[in-house]
Amino acid sequence: MKFEDxxxxxxxxxxxxxxxxxxxxxxxxxxFTTNPTLMKKAGVKDYVSFAKEALSEIPDLPLSLxxxxxxxxxxxxxxxxxxxxxxxxxxxIPITNSRGESSIPLIKKLSADGIKLNVTAxxxxxxxxxxxxxxxxxxxxxxxxxxxxxxxxxxDAMPVMKETSEICKTKPGTLSLWASCREVYNIIQAxxxxxDIITVTNPILAKLPGLGKDLTQLSLETVQMFVxxxxxxxxxxxx
Length: 239
What we know:
Blueprint: E1 9-13, H1 17-26, E2 32-33, H2 36-42, H3 47-57, E3 63-66, H4 72-83, E4 89-94, H5 104-112, E5 117-122, H6 125-134, E6 141-145, H7 147-152, H8 158-169, E7 174-178, H9 184-192, E8 197-200, H10 202-205, H11 215-233
Parallel strand pairs: 1-2, 1-8, 2-3, 3-4, 4-5, 5-6, 6-7, 7-8
Helix pairs in contact: 1-3, 6-8
């Protein structure tokens, strides 16, 4: 299978500005997402400066930026500041706070004001249903289900993602998203589920040219890699 055969939309997932700029220039991905953990990994020191730079470099594609607060009052204030940065911003709201308290009332409130939302850290169909029900009719939203984390527990995420896709279709303007992509094959799986978007990190994006590659040729290239690496080590087994 070639990438051109897939219907799914790819978003780049990360917080390294240079990496984001590179993917934007390639024109392959159609949106960007980030989160506090990715920002920490990338060494981001100032949230607003990072957001403004990212938006100046990516002015015309969806960009999801997440709130940092853990209480809903502050979360709401942050969401409104983030949303006001640009029309192409989606505000990421976690489905609960760290105490397990539901974010649905806040989601409903923000959506009623027309703020574009990306509800994140979803892992159950009950959370999907509650989230979609909270969106105001006619608004644009994303429902991010962490399929990779579901599969990390030994559970097949595909039935969840298939039903998520159907639930999202009941509210026009709402898109389903496969989050925590672990490998290229997840893109195929997400496409088979009818998922609208999959977020992919730069290391996995770099593997996409290998999609549909002849396996015999790949086997040969793997052996060639082993031989070349062995030569570079200068080892001698026979003395």
